[in-house]
Every structure is written in C-alpha cells, then in structure tokens.
Amino acid sequence: MKKNVLIIGGGGVAQVVAHKCAQHNDLLGDLHIASRTKSKCDSIIESVHQKGAMKVPGTFEAHAVNAMDTAAVADLIRKTGAQIVINVGSAFVNMYVLDACIETGVAYMDTAIHEDPEKICETPPWYGNYEWKKREACEKAGVTAILGVGFDPGVVNAYARLAEDEYLDTITSIDIVDINAGSHGKWFATNFDPEINFREFTGTVYSWQNGQWQSNTMFEVGKEWDLPVVGKQKAYMTGHDEVHSLSARYPQADVRFWMGFGDHYINVFTVLKNLGLLSEQPVKTAEGQEVVPLKVVKAVLPDPASLAPNYTGKTCIGDFVKGTKDGKPAEVFIYNVADHKEAYEEVGSQGISYTAGVPPVAAAILIANGTWDVRKMANVEDLDPKPFISLLNRIGLPTRVKDANGDRAVEFG
Amino acid sequence: MKKNVLIIGGGGVAQVVAHKCAQHNDLLGDLHIASRTKSKCDSIIESVHQKGAMKVPGTFEAHAVNAMDTAAVADLIRKTGAQIVINVGSAFVNMYVLDACIETGVAYMDTAIHEDPEKICETPPWYGNYEWKKREACEKAGVTAILGVGFDPGVVNAYARLAEDEYLDTITSIDIVDINAGSHGKWFATNFDPEINFREFTGTVYSWQNGQWQSNTMFEVGKEWDLPVVGKQKAYMTGHDEVHSLSARYPQADVRFWMGFGDHYINVFTVLKNLGLLSEQPVKTAEGQEVVPLKVVKAVLPDPASLAPNYTGKTCIGDFVKGTKDGKPAEVFIYNVADHKEAYEEVGSQGISYTAGVPPVAAAILIANGTWDVRKMANVEDLDPKPFISLLNRIGLPTRVKDANGDRAVEFG
Known about the structure:
The structure is a homodimer.
Chain A (H helix, E strand, L loop, with lengths): L4 E4 L3 H12 L1 H4 L2 E5 L2 H13 L9 E5 L5 H11 L3 E4 L6 H11 L2 E4 L15 H4 L5 H7 L3 E3 L7 H13 L2 E11 L13 H9 L2 E5 L2 E5 L5 E6 L3 E7 L5 H7 L4 E7 L2 H13 L7 E2 L5 E2 L1 H8 L13 E12 L2 E12 H8 L3 H18 L8 E3 L5 H11 L4 E4 L2 E4 L4
Parallel strand pairs in A: 1-2, 1-4, 2-3, 4-5, 5-6, 6-17, 7-12
Antiparallel strand pairs in A: 7-15, 8-9, 10-11, 11-12, 13-14, 15-16, 16-18, 18-19
Helix pairs in contact in A: 1-3, 1-14, 4-5, 8-15, 14-15
C-alpha cells in the first residue's frame, strides 16, 4: 500500500492527471505537481479547484523542478513524501526521473518512451536502449516502475493481454489503430507538443512482422479501417512505443501500429519535412543565427492546450487481434471511444490528452491499493489487465469489444 | 558619353551582369563589382575569366561595401571612377545607392523596387513611396537614374511602349505574363532569394483596372494563357513593380501582371504562409530565442545559385497589349523566350537570372554611348524602346511579336 502522488509535468496530459488524481485523492493521499515552470502547475491546481475536483479536502501543491536533475527530483520526492511518481513531463526526462525513484524507492510510471533530444528514432526495440537497462536496478530496489501507461502505449497493451487472457488461444497479429475523428477548427495544429508529434513521424517506421523488425517510411503503408462510431478511416503504419514491448511478449505475432491522418495533415507534414523544416539539427540563417527549424515550426503553430475549448468529435483507439480460438481462426477488436467535448467539460483538456492522462491515474490507484504494486519494472502487458480495465470503465474510459458475438461493453465479475 | 561600371551585388543576377559587362568592356571601360561579402565578387570575377568573357584586356576588380551606407558607396564610386552604377543588390539597398549616385553625379540603375525590410507590400503606386521622391534631386544633379531595368520590370515596360509607338493607336489593356516553364529538378526551390520571392507574394495583389487600384489576394485570380513555345500555362495575378509605373503612363488602360505557378509551388507556398512561416516578424521559440520564420525558411531552401547547372527548359515573358489600330480592335503579344541551359553555358546562371541581368547591361551601354543618358530619373517606358530592344536582340534576349500578321522577330531599320 502506497500513497501520496507527485506529478511531473505541466502540459495538457498533466492537467488531466491532476484532475483525475484530485477526483480520487481519498485513495491517493497528498497531491503534488512539479514542472520547470511553476506557474503552469499553479494554473493546473487552480483549474482543479475551479471544477471542485478534490473528492475530499486535502493537499495539492505546486513545485518548480528541473526534471533532468535526478538529485533535485529525489529531493522533491523526499520533501513531499510522495510514494508514487506519475511522470508526464517531456519524453526527454524519463531516465532522470526513474533514477530518482530508484534512489528513493518509490513507484514510477510514465506514458511515453525516453528520447534523447539529439536523436530521432533509435534502433529497435526502443525500450532496450534506455528503460530496460534499469530492470535489475528496479528489482533490487523493490521499485514498481510501469512503463508507457497512457492510452497508446498503455491501455492498448492491456487490450493485447486481455485478448490473450480472455478471447484467443493463440495470437497471430496485433494491429493497434488510433483514430482521432475530432476537429479543432484550426487550419493546422498538432494535438500535443509539435516537437514530439513531428519527431514521432520523421524516423523509420518499425513494425514486427514474420518474426523480425521491418522498416518502412512514414505514410508508405496505408490502410482503411472500418471502426465503431467513427466509421471508415484511413490510417498509416507508424513507429510507436508499444510495438517495441508487445513484440517481446508475442514474438510469433505480427505487431503493427496504425495512426489515422487526413490528407491535409499529410500534405502539411510532407511539405515541412521535405523542405527540412522538421529537422532537429540547427541551420544557420544568412545573418549567422543558429536555429533549430523544428523549434521555429513549434513556435508558429497553435499551442495544443488552446485547442481544447473548441474541440469536437470523438477518438477511437483499439486493438485488432487475430489468432485462433478452439482451433478455429478468430478475431477481436477491443477499443475505447472518447469524446473531446466531454473531456473538456470534465477536466479542461481535449480528448487526446484525456485518453493519455486517465490511465496513469488508474495505475496509480492500483499501485496505491497494492494490486499492481509489483516491485519491479513492467510494461503494461506484463500486468493483469482486468483490474485496470475495470477501473478505467468506472473513471471515464470504458472498454468495448467487437467480435463474432457482437459489439458490447467489457465487464468483469 | 560615360564609362566605367560599378556593379552592386554578388548574387545570381550580379553574375550575369558581370559576364555581360565583360563581353562589352570595349564600350564600358573599367569594371568593378562590390557586395557585403567580397569573396562572392571574387568568385564572379573568377568565373568571368574562366569563360574568357572579357572582350578586350581591362580592369575587373572586386570590393567589399555595405550598400546601405551611402557614404561608403559614394567613396567607392569616387575611388573606382565609375560613371555608371548597376545596382543588382538586395531590394533593401536601392535608396542608399541612388543617394550615393546623386551625391557623386553618376548614372544609376536597378532592376527591382526599393523595399523596407520591415514592411510588406506598401500602398500604390509603389514608386511613389521611395524612388519618385528623388525625381527632382536627379534632375537638379543631372543624374540619369533608370528604375527597374531588368526583364520584368524593365523589358516588359519597353514592350508596352513599343506597342504604343509601333502597333496600336490606343491602348485599353496591358497584361504582362511571366512563365518559367523550366525545371530545376529539386523537390522545391525558389529561382531567386527566397526571402524576396516569398515577400512578393504575401502582400496585397494590386492591379490597375477601370482607372483605379484593385486589391486581390495572391492566387485569388488565375487564368490560362496560351503562349508561344511554352504552350498553355496557368498564371495568377500578382503584385509587381511595373504595374505601378505603367498605370501612370497608361491610366486609361487596365494594367495587370500574371505570373505562372504550378500547383506544387502554390501548395508549398500556401502551407508555409498559413502556418506563419513566411512572416517577416520575429517569433519566440519555447527556449526564448527570437527568430524571423522567413529567414529560417530561406536557410533550409536550396541556394538559388545552386540550381543553374541542372536547370532545363525555357521561360516566356511578354506583354499582351490590347487596343485599337486604325479604328479597329487590335491585339499584340510582344515577348522573349529564353533557355535555362543556354544561359548557364554562356554566363553560369539560370534563365531567370539571365533575363534579369542582361537588360541593365544593355541600358548601361545605351547610357555609355549617350542614347539613354537622359540626365533625369526615368522608368523604362519613358525612354525610346527601339535602341534598347535592338541591342537586346544582339546580346542574348531577342524580341518577337505575335499578332494578326503572324509570329515574327522584331527588327528595326
């Protein structure tokens, strides 16, 4: 049994995590939030109080911290008495925060893989480059570290495990499909930090097929998917974290990730990429100023947080899992549908942030009550998916399943 | 009679001017070239000697000068003994160089209108904002100043005047059409300085119609033109210098400028513009760095000079002039066709630079021999077009005319 939560980060996902932690502070204890810019944390706490989100009277404090300074994070953990750290800061800080958790013996979780700002798309499996090198250290320190516990990666990993546990005897393919059928009303915008968003699509697209890594380029492989609620949608094979852990648990299966893109997004992306404006490497202007083009693109694009108030429509994210059941071919689609406007009304963020921010709070509750407090490093598919999915059903992200027996809610017990 | 030429500028057009001056140094005397970066001038002179372009043994010297420092330019004029200054530097330096010419009493010419780096697209007529304010000063000092004597503006202004002098009794419309049907083989590139190129298309499109200024936006008004050699081409009404002087001489006529653009160019331009990446106003990155987006776009695009070796295809630029002849409606198309590869072989630049760089050298020869040494400020349509067009016929830019009597070379005497 653990309690008291420290949230690292001050962006859109941190906002959701803060609201959801507040809604369950009877279970989670004292709440703290820290980022480089304390004022962002102050604003988030203010919005929590405006919504009256705290379930019971309690502590919610803001702090300034440089999350790339392990000693500073460790000090903050000790000072706050946090036993659970939810890291939803930039993808560049993971390893520093994880080290601080190992040093202080507290639980760690994040929602996206560690990235080196200087590198785009390293060799697969990505987790092997950073996180998995700390497995022994976690086990030795008895530290629960749950990697990638947002929606994708995260819930979709639990869906794969649920297919294994409940619906199929053997698994031959896992296709994760992420469709945002919402509309933000801007000419162009990214749904989260443009720098991270574009970095995701500029590298090699790795998929696991026929027992080995396959390389493609972004937008090279497209496929139309017919999904509940959002209908037929074109998605493209995309490099994504969960492929790099699911392929280790299901080496016999093809594991692919597909993200939906409209023609307009692809066109803008293609222009920027082909011109060199998505480069993370500095260029020199005629006046001699050194500039990273991607950071200028980020500067001219709308702040993703600004999209939330006018965002309408729905997301659909889920796993098409194929294999056999009782010796016959079988297929199941396990999925969630979320609504941008409902998310904004509840927590002041759009649906993309909502689907990413609710799952780590569910994981925190499962660590707090001992269910997932495994005292070692785990990817989500390593853990029992049922209590996680049950809890998500109750706190805002209901799961449904569609197979030969119809389209229905997933309920346990 | 004047002699000795000082070229201001070190880009692609300056390269053409240098080669063409060298080919006529028997008439033009000593040659000098100056830009902020002297090494660019050294390279240009080196290429002149590599081609053996100097007609007779003579002087060709490189200098460093800040062309926005009138006193420094005046000193250089005195030091070199130049009596003719060909300004093909950035559009931001015109007024400083013109002032230096007035101060020293030497002839001035340029190929594009003065621009303030801080402003995009000022109120019409553009010449009224800067150049024409110096008319009296030129006349008083007896200084010949020929404005906009590239191809467009420049030769196309002479074509309008030729239509008036030779082909029509009244003029009701002048449509200048500029088509580059060449191919540079890059995914995207601009044919001259991207900063100037994009600035040209981000402001209001002014045209002179029905006796008044009309405002449109770029790519709002498109029209397919059927042209000699390059065939049917889509062009868009574009703001351009010559509209702002021709409308003063021909106030009764509609005066429009049309530039050809492929769908690919328009798409790239539209993406960059709508994202804010063509802005000349600085933005601040998340890291606090102040950056002008347009300068970053310039930094990632190919150097226009690098396009020349692989450029193929032709340009067609000319004037469709309508009016009456002997009381009946009449129409004439006066035009030039230039070839990118031939231009590169002769002077080491592509066709766009060639068409812009040859006309000021023709003008310099006409000033040197007295024909155009009018000792006042003039736009090209104010001058007798015949000696200019005759000379251009002989030095690389032949003029043709197409009307009810057929398609034929324009020859005089």
